[in-house]
Queue: 2 jobs
Job 1
Amino acid sequence: MRYLLVEDNPDLAQSVADRLRLDGHAVDPAASLAEARDCLAAAPYDLILLDISLPDGDGRNFLAAERRSGRDTPIIVMTARAEVSDRVDVLDLGADDYVTKPFDFAELEARCRAVLRRRGSALQTVQHFAGLTFNPLNASLSVDGELRELRNRELRLLEILLAAPERIFSKGQICDRLFSYAESVTDNAIEVYVARLRKKLEGSGARIETVRGIGYRLTSG
Amino acid sequence: MRRAPLSLRLRLVLQLLGIAAVLAIVLYFTVRTVADQAAEATQDGVLGAATLAIAESLQGGEDGVGVDLPYEAFSILGSISADRVFYRIEAGGQTLTGYEDLPLPEAAGAAVAPVFYSRAYRDTEVRIAAVNRMVLVARKPVPVLVLVAQTRQGQEAIAQRVAQRAAALGLGSFALAAVLSLLTAGNVLRPINRLADAVGRRGPHDLRSVDQPTPAELRPLIFALNGFIARLRGALSRTETFIAEAAHHIRTPLATVRARAEIAMRQSNSEETRETLRAVIRAVEESSRSAGQLLDHATVVYRSDRMADEALDLAKLVEAQAEAFRPTADLKDLTIRVTGTDQPVTVRGDRPLIEAALRNLLDNAIKYSPDETTVDLSLATGTEARIEVSDRGRGLSGQAQARLAKRFARGKNAGDIIGSGLGLTIVEEVAAAHGGRFELTERDGGGACARLFLPLG
Amino acid sequence: MRAIVLALGLILHACLAAGFPVEEEMLFPAPETERRELSILSTTDTGVLRPLIAAFQVREPDVAVRYTVASSQAVYAAIHDEGLSFDLVISSAMDLQMKLANDGFSAPHDSTATDRLPAWAHWQDRLYAFAQENVVLIASRSGLGGLPLPQTRRDLIELLRGHPDRFRGRIGTYDPELSGAGYLFATQDARQSDSFWRLAEVMGGLAPRLYTSSNEMITDLKQGRLVLAYNVLGSYAEPRLAGDDDAVVIELEDHTLTLLRTGLIPVTARAPDLGGQFLDFLLAPEGQRLLRDEAGLPRIDEAALSRGPHLRPMRLEPGLLVFLDGLKRRGFLDEWAAALSQD
């Protein structure tokens, strides 16, 4: 996916961009509304992450202008103010959703996906592996044309493993991405989800292999 | 120890009564003095006339002074009052006739007009008129002094009557003044009482200026009061702004920290490092949650004073909030089940406030729900609108709702779940601001059930 | 003043036995055990007030009444000059009573009975009138021999002038020099109208007989020694002449004096409360009725005054003191003597 990140705080912009890139997204940072307009003029984006307070204006004005111009690139507002009325405002002005800083990237990703799904995005994110067809946008998995429902955690586990087949992910790494940091989870919890996902993958060429003492990997072997 | 100052009413009444008393006393003495003087002047006039009549009857002659007491001179003295009468006629130092012991004037000039004086005589006090005349006796002038005296009982009786009338008049006017002063005090103090009522009836967050119509004398008070209210409002407003600013300023760096921590976590293979980073992220999350709730709470308090009063469709609001929370719930594989929103339920109120309440209710339910359970969100109407949020979390552990809803209180069993405890306080305050109520109970089969009641619009 | 005392002294001397010339003294013992004594000094004959004393003693059976009768001057002197002690002083000499009260010899007294009195019937709370008596002319029809009865002093003067022989030596009146009442009537007459002096002059030419009491004049008229008696107390004349067809009581229409018989409680009283009780009894309805029916003294009656426009009640006022003045008295009596001894 290609993100336009409109954020004037350079540290935060850098961090968010870095974090999104870790998941394989393309991110163009813009530090002002002017820069954002330049970027939008130059290239199409799948999603805009928009801060409200910007040096050359209010993000809400930009939002309203975008909507008036007829462009319908999904916009998720990142607000730091989070006053009750602000949230209402941005949705009324045409934002697709909002997140309050500091945001949980898992949640941000979930919200992005929900937005895109709602918009019926034509974005091609479908991945193929060993007889699996996986579309994370609408959480659909098909094995040899047979559609299998994935729950959110199963989907994310598959996403993690599918990002680098054959690579071994430690239980800790998986845990951190699957559960909120606030939750204390045991390794057993992961085993439950691994077991469920294995079931969903049955019949395909792909399987989750337990690397004893280290973690898991997705393999087609 | 300082004594409490007298009430204004008492003070006013006492002062008015004091003035009335002084006026009544002045009135009494004035009437008495004037009446006494008038009575004395009347008596003096008659006495003088009698004395002159006698003096005119004096006749000279070869062998002595002749006197022919005119009957009317005495008769007229009796016509005014039944007072005792004494007289003395002295010629050349010898008492010619009358009462020899009647006191002579101190200075008996050759006055044409009578002189008057009061003396004790016999067993009483008398008023005496004296007149001096020269009479020719054997062709020599002989001074003749005519004294006529009258007791003062009649005058005293008049004075007594006048004193009684004056006293009655004084008392009457005092009584009238007392009644009037009570009425006046009531009247004067009524605007103060009205003002006190108007200010006293206000709700705890009502910080509008006082615009009660008041007399000019109270305007400085109103002015000062409004000034104070304005300062208070300003202080509150600055507090709100400060909280909002603080939240804003704290959130951006927290976001950076969190993002960096997550990146570091992804790139680290050391379990110890990751544990540390997890702690960092948890701390960030807790801070931001606290900031959010503080902000929400401040907003709720601030908006309660100037609440909008619009017709709202609760069904739509509930749906929208459920929708907004779905991605969050998904992360825990939670289902949000919404019921009762198939037809509109109208209430009157402030949309941001109601949304804040709904958000906090849902946030709470999601936070405490175990993975892969269902949060039930139902809307119902009866005599009032009821929004019910039920979860399968750890419940209340028998703690009173009142304590849970207290600011910063958190359930004992909240344990590792991040939250500042302000959430329920916010819900309760929103309910109160709308004339509704909020209750939190254990749910059958485990979990908690939160109910927000709002009056139908 | 000294002159009066001197004059009184001379009068008194004539009939003075021991210090105080008593005409009559009578003790009415208490019907029951005597506890108190009421002493009354009076100018009124004992017989007149006897029924009232008796009625009083029925109400107050433990009271003995000592009733002393003296002439009006003697009564006055007993109180004013000698300071004798009596509980009640009753006198027809209004002027002397007035002087006693004016000079402070009378004690105050107030009661419901005195409250009922009209204003002209009392002076302050010191002197109270309990009977009003007209001063009248009495005439003998036979003596007049068919001459018309005079209705005014003018009639009287013309009658006397027209028939001097018929009236010579047969007219009676008070001797103002010797009689206190006579002096009072004469001075008051003189005040009322000038016709008094013309009458005095006419009478002076007819050798009038001078008396010191009304009773003597009534007696002499009844016995034919007098044809006319001028200034007689009606209260004495009426009961005695009732049933006598020859005698006529005439209230002169130009003016008829009305005398007030008064009582006062002297400051020297030993039992002023008893004196007051008796005075109240005289003033109360029962006493007033007894006075009229038994004593023949007309009661205090305001209506009677308004019915008789010719009536001139003598007022209890300081004016009465004027003729008691020594100089004034001498002047008046000199004039009287001159009027009487003309020709």
Job 2
Amino acid sequence: MLENVNFLLIREIISSVFIIIGVMFMLIATIGLLRFPDFYIRMSAITKGATLGLGLILTGMGIYFNEPDMFLKVALIISFTFITSPVAAHVIGRTAVRNKIPFWPKTNLDEFKGYLRKDHMTRNHQKEEKEQKP
Amino acid sequence: MSIFSFTLIFAMAALSICLVMTAIRFAIGPTLPDRITAFDLFVANVIGIVAIYTELTGNVDFIDVAIILSLFGFLGSISFAYYLMKSTR
């Protein structure tokens, strides 16, 4: 019974489904990048959507080739992307807050204002110390 | 033309549209962090295109490009952010 099954066709269908879902995620993330009103919202859209879409595309490719070294390389790329993407987003977001990139007016900043004030106070304090030194 | 190759070509076209929209955001982005995030998405799109191209041609060697690219994209965005933070202080 197993001889009648076309395994290549099954692999192609599963791979196609994974790739289509991943491409849809990337397309939605890119539309979010183009349409959202604020830098921070845009960054959140990219970091989640594009990473998940990339993981799904690579998983579909690994299923199609069905070789051990291919699965190893796919796992390597997915682990790199899933580790480095949140770190890069965190660093860029902190840089944006430090550079006073404006927020969207409707953003709820009640909890964030205390942190922001404290952060700017410490920065001004450091600047004053640096100016006093020479 | 089987359904599989049609799916791959459709995916490639969709990712190309993604690249164009990212380039538009790269051009009009009001601030520098916008451009850094657009660059990040650019690298992710190119990794996806390389993966689909590997599947379309059946040549396994192309996937090494995606490994190197996933490392260099992270390095690029981190160094841009580091430079930006250094220059404002």
